[in-house]
Amino acid sequence: MSTSPTPPPSADDTAPEARARRALADAVREVEHHVAAAGWDAPVRVFALVRTQEALAAEPGLADQLAPEVLAAALADDQHLTSVEQEGLPDADDLEALLGGLTWPPTVHGAAVTVERVVLPPGAEDDLPSDPEAAVAALLAHPQRQDVRLAVAVLRGGPSWCAVRTRAHDSDDAVGLGPDLVPGLVEAVRATLE
């Protein structure tokens, strides 16, 4: 049986922009998988994204904290990202207020956020009561509700990537992935980097 050789990467695959998109997608998968390991009913979590090579240059001791395969990947690609979870987030009434109060220093190349939400199929929201408290109660009791976890990341001045996991299909191979799955949240995270 013969096999054809793997074609060399095209210029498009090796361009910094393409490598940055791949690094961002990898970082979102890693963040989403990390958060998923803690289970459901979790608070909002926020992560700074830094280019690993730059972080290693600034803090050489970081190398001792990275798995050998992560360190090798980081040394091979200057676009490789490391996520740093942010502790002690400021108090905020809602996600929009939290994100509106965040700013990042220039050493942070991107940001990621995970949040859980309840969604209904199209049209189901039309039947919710107008009173906010009654609407929340009806939403939580709705037979067609879906619990979802959203992971959204954006690079400063660059691409975005999203992951969506449903509680009903809580499996690593059932996570939806794409650049703009949650456009409103993408824009809110992007605004923290401006």
UniProtKB/TrEMBL annotation:
Residues 16-25 have a biased composition (Basic and acidic residues). Residues 1-10 have a biased composition (Pro residues). InterPro entries: PPA1309-like. Residues 1-25 are annotated as: Disordered. NCBIfam families: PPA1309_fam. This is Uncharacterized protein.
